[in-house]
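Database export, one record per block. Field names are fixed; values are copied verbatim from the stored entry.
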Amino acid sequence: MDKQRDFVLRTIEERGVKFIRLWFTDVTGTLKSVAIAPAEVEGAFAEGLGFDGSAIEGLTRTYESDLLAHPDPTTFQTLPWRGEIDPTARMFCDITTPDGQPAVADPRNVLKRALAKAADAGFTFYTHPEIEFYLLKSSTVGPNGPEPVDSAGYFDNVPGGTAHDFRRRSVRMLEDLGISVEFSHHEAGPGQNEIDLRYADALSTADNIMTFRTVIKEVAIEQGVYATFMPKPLSGHPGSGMHTHMSLFEGDVNAFYEEGAQYQLSKVGRQFIAGLLRHANEISAVTNQFVNSYKRLWGGDEAPSFICWGHNNRSALVRVPMYKPNKGGSTRVEYRALDSAANPYLAYALMLAAGLKGIEEEYELPAEAEDNVWSLSDAERRALGYGSLPASLDHALEYMEESEFVAETLGEQVFNYVLLNKRREWQEYRAQVTPFELQKNLEML
């Protein structure tokens, strides 16, 4: 760590960095930032930077508000969009109390705790997210709703289109920040794009997702458009998911791989899926944390609505992608409910914990779904044992509130704050009179 600190201090001097932004995330997944001068960095490494935690969503109670942000030198990167005028860098922070204890409500610490539990069981957790978002002409909503930048579709090549330049610029910027990109393409909705990050350990991935959202927003501003990670911004068009591929490794060996097994999927892999399925409802208030998230889950267009798994079945909640011959390391499972607006630290902590619980308690994996689950009737789904995901945020909160497993993984303070914050959102949503009601009822009643 000392070597890493020396490297950061040396790089700041060599590159003439003028500002260093210290980044951390609140409980709802909003990025927070405080800028310090180069002269302050050594002190921040040694003692942390003090701030009032009670002013940050869910981070601490008012009577214990003093917190310290400790920059993690391994996350140091210069920010490419700041240019040469005032070179600026960033580091993610771990949050502690004044006596040096990790702050219980720091989302990064929640994930670190879950990863430590996995490490105790001999596992490293790798994740690979496919992040979807919409590009709109502006953030203002016209009479016909948000206006996308194009009307292209899945994998479309749009000569001279905004999305091409946008993705090229975004990918270059991400690579400059040390974030490897695997794919980028136009998605199915008008103005919808997807950029997939290369797999990495879950903590790096969560940091990368927070950086990714900032990069996408910055490039959008630069190009005169607006980027949104809202789960379902356009009625009648697909929502934006963040399908995540996951695998557990024991050293260099993929614990999900077993040669000759069905889909080359080991017993550990099967139990991990069983854990995800059994606890899907309890974790959905975090993996799908907004009222709008449930418009995506229940809006069709390949969003998963039912709790089942399948091999290459895009209607299933958990998918086992096609195995690549002679690539044992590539065996993985894909969780398809997560949306692009989730707090990645909390979501990955819960997805990992659900899978580990399946392994610890040796959950039995139910039979796979071979049919298109959406095309079945309710009676057929019931007969096959496919439960449904929550239909609303309110519904999801009811599951979460009863879950000891979620309370234990998040810690009491984060658990209580998420429930409180999301209940308030649901009440505000429920109290409004919507255009739908006015159109349907005003003249008729």
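Remark 1: The CA atoms of residues 307 and 387 lie 5 Å apart.
Remark 2: The mean pLDDT is 90.
End of record.
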